[in-house]
Design brief:
Blueprint (H helix, E strand, L loop, with lengths): L2 H5 L6 H9 L8 H19 L7 H10 L5 E4 L3 H10 L8 E4 L11 H10 L7 E4 L2 H9 L3 E4 L8 H4 L4 E2 L3 H9 L1
Parallel strand pairs: 1-2, 3-4, 4-5
Helix pairs in contact: 4-9
Length: 181
Amino acid sequence: MSQRTLELVIGVDLAGTKAILNRFLPANVEIDDLTKQAVAISKRYIENHNLPVKEGVVELLSHLKARGTSIGLATTTFTERALANLQRSELAGYFQAVIGGDQVARGKPHPDIYLKALEALRAEPGDSLAFEDSDYGIKAAFAAGLRVIHIPDIKRIDEVNRVLVHREYATLLDFRDDIAV
């Protein structure tokens, strides 16, 4: 599979990923076998090399925590794995709520995961921001009523989703510097 094909599943839950990738597989390859192998490879990589952390995340989280800001994580990753990744990256202590894809019936681009995170934080959508790097995440956050801050990553977002973005910053540090003034 090409990188372009794999970009189609960025931000998509497991069921959606399987549905998308299944269209590209030869008839003799089972999607469940492929996803099990991919999860195993990813897990091994993280165990051996640690999880890459987005530039500026520690500085931004520290700044927000010092300001008394409630912080939640709404991720398509299953909760147990997300929590393990946060522990491994020494970021778990910053979050008051972690909502994984296994906690909602419908994943991104549906707003369910953000609505559940807002509920857990006892926060109002209009008073909250979502940091997103994917088309599906932007759609989900916007549909939940949050202002979306886009931090570009692997895949460029399309123009349809760009209009849903409140602001875009090249890095999390740029956002932190903007609000620190």
